Structures are given as structure tokens and as C-alpha cells.
Amino acid sequence: MSTFGRAFRVTTYGESHCPSVGCIIDGCPPGMKLTEADIQPQLTRRRPGQSALTTPRDEKDRVQIQSGTESGITLGTPIGLMVKNEDQRPHDYKGDTMAGFPRPSHADYTYQEKYGVRASSGGGRSSARETIARVASGAIAEKYLSLVHGVEIVAFVSSVGNEELFPPTSTHPTPSTNPIFLKLLDTITREEVDHPDYLPVRCPNKEAATRMSDKIAEFRDKKDSIGGTVTCVIRNCPVGIGEPCFDKIEACLAQGMLSIPATKGFEIGSGFGGCAVPGSLNNDAFVSSVPVAPSQSGVDASPDAPPEPITNGAKPRSNRLKTKTNNSGGVQGGISNGAHIYFRVGFKPPATIGQAQNTVDFEGKEGVLEAKGRHDPCVVPRAVAIVEAMAALVVMDAVMTQSSRQSMRDALQDRG
Ligand SMILES: C=C(O[C@@H]1CC(C(=O)O)=C[C@@H](OP(=O)(O)O)[C@H]1O)C(=O)O
């Protein structure tokens, strides 16, 4: 299906080589200021042609809002977003080789088998061009979450091949116990991730970023490709989002992330590393967290503090407890507990490589494929913006669902 979400519902359209890609968003709250300027920065972080380590396809990826706003304010009606495909080279996909051979590990074969027909050039619907619509709609969800709840979502590259930002050690087999990692989750911003020292890879450590950049260049120069991981943190996520049993927040995050092209893995909190340690080490003990009311504390709220959540006039609910550690990654029982939600997404090496591969054509005849075209040797530097967008879409949908439950519960108060 091409629709994601229930309350905040995004339907994406477009193939790699059709006139445009985009989406319709249904359910965006009315009355929010919104212009292209709110959306473009994330599209620019995702766009192809941004460095020597990405696909050279040179798209500007300028977004146009087609509907759903007037005078820069959302109307609550469907928002249409469109980005033109401008730099296509369909002839790269013509001829005996590219047209005749399903690219190993690409979607060519399965699309052909499933639909009996497929887009004749590019990745068609399976192309990373489709992620433009996710990034554009995610920017809108994120704007609301930031304005109303102070939510912050930041992703960064945590590995390329075997080059890791936090390699496992005997003391910290998983980063969830590493104080440097945890401090990074507290403070990292998108501006830091895009610091010139960390570009073009977007790994927030100069030495690791250089190792990763060299690794990608090495595989690009061999006409090969390499995989990697992206870590993402969601700060100030409201407590209580996630809909057990099947729409637990981590299940929705996993689905959202694993719907991004080229993903092969997802872990949250201590993840797979946490599965190798006893409960006594993995459990997150609780401590009291009774909030001090501003009138009692004698100090004004910090200008950086997240805004008070909007509760439609009902009494705000205090978060009575917090955890000392956060191996759970901010989620228990599939419901957010107020701690940072953090997770890691694994991306495989891109399937399209220029190196000769022994394979068979669509008829089963043996041959050699040397793929043509302009392709990423590694997707993780551009995937950072896509992971952030999918996180925003998941959280927005879950916040809207919980807000509706909460306001109906509040309406019942004192009425028996
Ligand atoms: C253009 C983008 O990525 C493209 C993803 C892609 C594929 O097969 O997935 C193939 C290449 O493009 P083309 O279809 O022109 O050969 C990539 O450059 C993008 O992400 O914007």
C-alpha cells in the first residue's frame, strides 16, 4: 500500500522517471503556519547529487504545496505536495543488459513477478525518489510536534561497513550503556550532524566520519557499494503514545523504518546487544520524578524548556516516575515512558553496482551484468533525513490517536 498512518495519513505517488513525485496528507491539524520553507531544508538534506559520495543524479527537489493551505496557514483539508523529476536518463536502462537482466538484490524481479509489468527505467516505485514524499510530509508532522510538544528528532550515521561510531567493547557491548553515547543522545542537533567536519557522511565524530567517508569512496571506486546504520533519537516525546497490542510505538517505528528502501534491520534501546545480558543489567530501575510547579520553584521556566503540553483545558498529567537507565529506549509495553526514544536502522549495500556480476536474465539465461546509471555507493548519508521523517510520521499519528482518547476521557471527568 502507498498509504501510511491513520489519523495523520500520507499517500505517496510517483516513480523514479515519471513527471513528478509527491503525496497527499489527510488529517493535518488546521491553523498551523506552513510554507515550502518549512519543508525544503529536509528535502535538501535528502536530495541526490549533494556530494561525491552520493548518486550524481542532479535533482533540485524543490517542493511545491498544491493544496491544503491559504495565506500560509493549514486549512485542515488535504495537503498536496509535489516535486518534479527533472534529471532523468531513461536510456541508461535500455539495451540488452539493463532491460534484460533483473538486477541482483534489486526489486526488478519481484515487481515483475508480482505485477506482470514494471516501470521500464529507474527503480520505478521502488526507487529512493519515493522517499521525497516521506521527507516532505514528515517535515509537516515534525513542525506540529515541535510547536506543541517540543519534540526533537535527530538522526546520524552510526556505521558504514565495519566502521562504527561506537564499536562494541567488553564494558559497553551495546551503546545503551555507554555514557558518551547517552550524552550524545541528550544533546545532538541537526546543525551539529551537518557540521562541515561531519559531512558528507553525517557521523558526529570527525575521526569516525573520515574513516566512513574513506570507506564509501573505496567501494565507489571499485564500482561496488557498502551498507551502514543510522541511529535516531526522539526527545520530549509525550508519555503514553503507542497503541497495544498491534500498534505498539516500537512496532510502528519498526514498520515505518523497514518500509524505507534498502532497510534490513531495526533495533530499539539496548536492541540485540541487550538480548545477551541478564535482566538484572538490562532493567531500567524507576526513580521518582515529581515535577516542581513553577510557582514553587521560584524560577521562570527556561526559554529552552519544551512547551507545556496542550490538554484542552484539562489538568496536565504529571509524569510521576522516570528511569535511571534507558535500555528500554523510551518504550515499555509498547507505550512511550517519557525517556528519549532511540533506535537504529540497518541499510544494506545498494543493489545496483557497476561491477560485473554473474547472474541470469529474465529468461534464466546465464550472463554478466555490469549495471549502468547513477547510483549511491552507500545510502546512509542521505537516509538520515528519511529516518527522521518516518519517525515524525509515526509519532504524529500516535500523538493524534492518544490525544483523541485523552480528550474524550477528560470530557467524562466529574460526569460519573
Ligand atoms: C534519484 C534518486 O535516487 C535514485 C535511486 C535509484 C533506484 O533505483 O532506487 C536509481 C538512481 O536514479 P535513476 O532512477 O535515475 O537511475 C538513483 O539516483 C533519489 O533518491 O532522489
UniProtKB/TrEMBL annotation:
Cofactor note: Reduced FMN (FMNH(2)).
Record pathway: Metabolic intermediate biosynthesis; chorismate biosynthesis; chorismate from D-erythrose 4-phosphate and phosphoenolpyruvate: step 7/7
GO BP term, example: aromatic amino acid family biosynthetic process
Superkingdom of the source species: Eukaryota
GO cellular component annotations of the record: cytosol
Entry's EC annotation: 4.2.3.5
Swiss-Prot/TrEMBL cofactor(s): FMNH2
GO molecular function: chorismate synthase activity; FMN binding
Record PROSITE patterns: CHORISMATE_SYNTHASE_1 (PS00787), CHORISMATE_SYNTHASE_2 (PS00788), CHORISMATE_SYNTHASE_3 (PS00789)
Region described as Disordered: 37-63, 293-332
Pfam families, alphabetized: Chorismate_synt (PF01264)
SUPFAM superfamilies, alphabetized: Chorismate synthase, AroC (SSF103263)
Reactions mediated catalytically: 5-O-(1-carboxyvinyl)-3-phosphoshikimate = chorismate + phosphate
Keyword annotations: Amino-acid biosynthesis, Aromatic amino acid biosynthesis, Lyase
NCBIfam families assigned: aroC
Homology family: Belongs to the chorismate synthase family.
Assembly mode: Homotetramer.
Name of protein: Chorismate synthase
Species of the source: Letharia columbiana
